[in-house]
Amino acid sequence: MGLRALRRRGRVKQEASGANAGQENVRVLVVGAGGREHALCWALKRDTPDADLFTTPGNPGTAQLGTNLKIPATAADDIVAAVREHRIDLTIVGPEAPLAAGLADRLRAAGRAVFGPSRDAARIESSKAFAKDVMQRAGVPTAASRSFDALDPALAFIRGHAEPLVVKASGLAAGKGVLVCATRDEAARAARALLADGALGEAGREIVVEEFLEGEELSLLALTDGERIVTLPAAQDHKRLGDGDTGPNTGGMGAYCPVSLATPELVARARHQVLEPTLRALAARGAPYAGVLYAGLMIAPPPDGTPYVLEFNCRFGDPEAQALLPVLPGVTGHLAEIAAGGWRPREEALAPSRAAVATVLAARGYPEKPELGAAIIVPRDLEAGTLVFHAGTYRDPDGALRVQGGRVLTVSGLGETVADAAQRGADACELIAFEGKTYRRDIAWRELGRGGRRAGAARG
After folding, report:
1. Most buried among 129, 227, 347, 447, using CB within 10 Å?
2. Residues 306-342: pLDDT tens digits?
3. The domain containing residue 406 runs over which residues?
4. CA atoms within 13 Å, Cβ hemisphere of 215
5. What is the 3 state secondary structure string of 431-458?
């Protein structure tokens, strides 16, 4: 169907009342304010140039592509009203928090097309304890674990657990709720900080303690209407702050695709062992899942190669979206068709048109205490094949671009190979300037060590 067909369908239903008289262009609202949402807006404009875009609350990057509405992403009542006021044909919910709060349910109840799972289905991300239960009952490969909402039982379990081990806040923690602990003492301190001291507030009122898995991480995202599945090219995220995967965990310092580890055989295995049984299990619980399902995987070393699930997310990843969306022309048509119903994809997997390496430029002090306010200079003459997506930025009263958040910009380099893309991105990262600029210079280091594969090799 695509975006234009979604608009025509809506006009047939509504023109009788005059509600859309004279409106020709499809109208799309993207909810959120980060780099992922800027990338979504960019992809929508690429696929449907005459679309009218709105973003709430948006950022200076999305303002260049459409209209920012000054409404917080979690203000459901105001968003539903804005969808009605601006005659929005399709709403795409970017972040996890509004999905977990039921924004997609509210919009569907109002008769509006929305891309994003229901509140019940979004629990696959908003509650790690729930996700673990779903996986265990569905037979999905994942680390052995136990969930706790009281400190003493958690400490007793930790005392008998092999080292190393992992302690996770069950709720939404903006990428900061996973603590890899080398010793039981370290894990006990983490459990105490979450359950007794409230270090992450509501997100840490329940924790998951699980075994540490060896292997290589992979991000596998899939579009689904709850029954049919189309996988996107696998990407690889870089969570640690520093080069060589050192320093604290962050929300993500960069990502790239394609990943040669993700052979067609491995993706098919993950589809059959992870995605399909998870969707069936959610449907059986009365929470059918429609949207994009993100599986964070740990691929066991050869010869095993089992795709173990580290986590599920209920939305496009950030920064994975900034690597994937630029190399998937036409992908937003799938989002519109899933939202409208009657999606009938012609393929089981989408292949990237080229390679992409996305590097996050962060503020000094990120993730603990980022320094805000620095002026940002983005040269106008960056090399072709480079995209800059805004995240933590704002414009001051004089129009100058300034730092507003920990992750400031994502620079996506594009090329025929991962090596080409990495070089383009690295050149642009050097040219962009702000005081305290912090970024990794080794995004895609594993792939570059394997030869910087050409995008076409991802095709199965």
Report:
1. 447
2. 999 999 999 999 999 999 999 999 999 999 999 999 9
3. 216-458
4. 24
5. HCECCCCECCCCCCHHHHHHCCCEHHHH
